[in-house]
What does this fold into?
Amino acid sequence: MLPALYRQGELSRAYGEGEIAGLLRERLKEVSDEIGLHRVLRRFRRDHMVRIIWRDLTRSAPLAEVLEDLSALLMPVLKRR
It folds into this structure.
């Protein structure tokens, strides 16, 4: 997973306000049932948590940015449940 995120430039990328919610909306367009919804939400959360944790552990992002990313990730996911 890390190599794929690295190749995509995700490990060094900071997202602007609303971008994570927009990415989730894009991924949810392909969902047609509840099982698919849960699968997409799990993968989306996993990918972004790995990105956020990586940026925190490597100190690629200041703590404030890490916390903003966590909030930006969790809000749209919680709204979908």
